[in-house]
Amino acid sequence: MEEKEFQQKTRSAFVWNLLDRVGSQLISVVVGIALARILGAAEYGLTGALAIFIALSQSLSDSGFSAALVRKQRVSETDYNTVFYYNLFVSVAMYVAGYFAAPAIADFFGEPILVPISRVLFVVFIFNALCLIQNAKMVKEIDFRKVASINITAIVISGGVALWMAYTGYGVWALVAQLVIQSFIKMLMQWAWGGWRPQLLFSWQSFKELFAFGSNIMLANVLNVLFLNIYSAIIGRMYNSRELGYYTQANKWSEMGVSTLYGVIQNSTYTLFSAIQHDRERLLRSYRKTMKLTAFITFPTLLALVLTARPFILILLGEKWAPSIPMFSMLVIAGIFTVLTTVNGNYIRIEGSSRLVLRLEIFKVSLFAIVLLFTWHLPILQLLWGMVATRVVVYIVSIVCIGRRVGYTWNQQLIDILPSCATALLMICFAYPIQFFVENIYLLFTLQIVVCVIFYCLINRYLQRDILDELWQNIRKIGR
């Protein structure tokens, strides 16, 4: 791929990923605000209790094959069909297992209603598996325009149905319907627009080749799912559905910011890094540049969310969700290191080091288990501080591993990201005192955001002008 074509594809991938994430999140914000004002913490707690099972099923069904297909330079129809039938078989098997395990899940959380909820909600296992290949092909072909259109359409339709059901008194079933319908619409549109249909092809050789890389990614993803979702299970078990509802809501809204950055960076960088994986010098140069840009955007965006956590939650959701504010702040802080670790993880995957990815996940889960051993019985906020500390340590270990493998040393990476971190912290210190003079939460939120944007842009005109100028030039090129 020529340099000019690569830059054009980079901009296109970034923009459509950004539009996908931002557009999806904006719609989700509107729907989420309305649902949160109708439904209570208990309803969100019920669906939050099942989050770990849905995420785990996705990792097991995918088995790392999506990453393997995107990374592989020449993919045959046999490869696609082999993965399709494997994923379909696994997803059906998991649904059957989930159907019969529903009573045990309900007993674990002490909520009998989880039996019918589980049996309906777990249908998404099959829907997701049916469109995995179509989605992988679009990503591999860097056709993020279709991906964005599909995701946004599915969110609009499912959100509309959920709002109608909530207003008409269906309670928790509005949240269940939202998830199931969203997955179903995505499946239908992927089949309509994906341009791929299964054939009667299957090859054990193809399976073994893709699974050799994908199996380590699958195990890493499973461990990551357990790491990210175990808190929901613990809070639901140790406390009650209301407390779990506060945590679920805090996690949901923190993910609005974190997953937008996380998703754009992960989808764009993995696909584009794959296209130049054989040009080591160019790959490393692009990786280092991506890390600088990631830090430049991530630190101010997420730290600004921490700063404005109180007015943000109260404006969007109302006073009844105030207990979720400190949880929200800590989850956003943890998300900063999740985003940075994602870029490192993508580079390791492109290097072909899926075993290293797995080892890092094993280390992360082992560290998490140790921290959890000392914090599981403590109040929720102290439990979450343990999560934050774990993610910081995991990021540090990831940059050490990267340095040893490719020569981009840990101190070089810290030098690349610390200017953005320092200027973002200065920005927060400058905007923080406003809360002592302004009581109106609407005015407070507006003033703090405006001050953060102006201060960060002005200070970087002197400290990191090259990144700011390049970002502005890319935005102007996109608009043409």
State the gist of this model.
With 480 residues, the chain is mostly helical. The chain has helices at residues 3-38, 41-49, 51-62, 65-71, 77-109, 114-121, 124-130, 132-140, 144-167, 172-193, 204-238, 241-275, 280-307, 309-317, 325-350, 354-375, 380-406, 410-431, 441-463, 465-479.
Written account of the structure:
By secondary structure, the chain is mostly helical. The protein has two domains: 39-238, no CATH class; 243-480, no CATH class. The chain contains 20 helices and no strands. The chain has helices spanning 3-38, 41-49, 51-62, 65-71, 77-109, 114-121, 124-130, 132-140, 144-167, 172-193, 204-238, 241-275, 280-307, 309-317, 325-350, 354-375, 380-406, 410-431, 441-463, 465-479. The two termini are 23 Å apart.
Report low-confidence residues grouped into runs of 5 or more.
none
**Helix and strand run:** HHHHHHHHHHHHHHHHHHHH
What's the average pLDDT?
79
Shape: globular
What topology does this entry show?
Layout: H1 3-38, H2 41-49, H3 51-62, H4 65-71, H5 77-109, H6 114-121, H7 124-130, H8 132-140, H9 144-167, H10 172-193, H11 204-238, H12 241-275, H13 280-307, H14 309-317, H15 325-350, H16 354-375, H17 380-406, H18 410-431, H19 441-463, H20 465-479
Helix pairs in contact: 1-9, 1-12, 2-12, 3-5, 3-7, 3-11, 4-8, 4-11, 5-6, 5-7, 5-11, 7-10, 9-10, 11-16, 12-13, 12-15, 13-15, 13-18, 14-19, 15-17, 16-17, 18-19, 19-20
